[in-house]
Structures are given as C-alpha cells and as structure tokens.
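Quick start: read one record
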Amino acid sequence: MKSEILDTPDFGLVRVRFERSGETIVAESGAMVSMSLGIKMTTKMRGGLLQAAKRRLLGGESLFQNTYESTAAGQELLLAPAAEGAVVSATLVAGEKLFLQSGAYLAHTGDLKMDGKVAGLRSFFGGVGFFMLQCEGPGELHFNSYGALHEIEVGPEGYVCDNGHIVAFTEGLTYEVRKFGGFKGLFFSGEGLVTHFRGQGQVFIQTRNAPALANFLEPYRRVRRSSNN
C-alpha cells in the first residue's frame, strides 16, 4: 500500500493506492471522498463499546470507524477531513507516541494504538484540549489541521504557542498554560491563553483556528428580531 498527500495545504486529502488484495486502512467516519469499485468497507466500534466511547469522549473521534480492504491490486481510495486545510502523514515506530488535539485524526494503517487521554486541568483552561488522542506506533498516521500546518522544532529554550493553533505534539515535551501578558493581556490582547512547551520534540501548529473565525463572523451574523403586534 502506498499513500500520498494531494492538494495540501489548502484542501488536503490522502490518496491510497493498494498494491495487493487484503490490504486495509482505518479511517474516521465520513472521511471517504471516492474509491474504486470492489473495495470492501466495514463499519464498527474498534475495541468495543467502552473503548470507542472513551475515544469519542476523550479524543474527539467518531464512535464508529470505517475499515477499507482491497480486493485487487491497483485499487484507489481518497480520504479527506471535514475542514479545509492541510493533511500530514507521520510514521510511528513501535512505542513512539504522538498526541493529537480533538478532531485532528483522519486515518491510519498498521497496528497503531489509539487511546483518549486526560491532559490535565491546565489543558482544560488552556484550550490545548482537555481531552487528547494518544496515538502509539507502529503504524502510519494521517492527521489534519484547519489551514496550513507547520512543524516547529522545540529545543531547550522552549517555545510558546497560542492554544487555538496547536494540532499535535510529540512525546518528550512538557507544557505549561499561561496567561498572555498577565490578566490585562488575557482580556485585552486578543491572545488569551498560550502554552509554553519545554523539552525536545516537535509541535505541529495550524495557521487558522475555528474560534477566531467565529469571532470574526459574529458582527455579520443576521439576528432575527421579533415584532410586537
């Protein structure tokens, strides 16, 4: 099986080309864009009801996932996230972990383990995602962002990210949520809370975030006024 990313960073999607019969890929519910005739699809709650419900609650995954299985070499499958933006692939070796924000998971292959994790109260107030999806290799993971996605190498000096722009980060990083510029900065700077990462690893950030878009559009929202008769 070979996969490639197309049309990123604007409208990213994954194209999967199966090289033989019996190859499989697991994807988030609703991610299929198109596929070759003959590909088998099964829908189930991976790990049973309790595990699926935990991933739904803690990691933002859909309760059901779809498994696509090839029946012949040369078949093709296209997968895309709901939001416009970039798609990135990461190959995780056995035991390697990557933490995703809620809703960033798209698909995976191999024996990838996924588990919802509570990141701590600081993350709840910080918006990094009180709940995160822990992905552990071996396997290939496809995840997505809202807008373009950039990888930041974090060193001993640390790095600061706006919480609404954090998509994923690697194991080995510690983080602390802080007010941007104190209480005055929290309420008047437009930045709110930020996360200070330390350690050695990578942070993946997105160039846009949904709450900022919602705030931008709020003044243009049409309000229905009731008339008194």
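Residues 55-60, 124-129, 185-190 have pLDDT under 50 and may be disordered.
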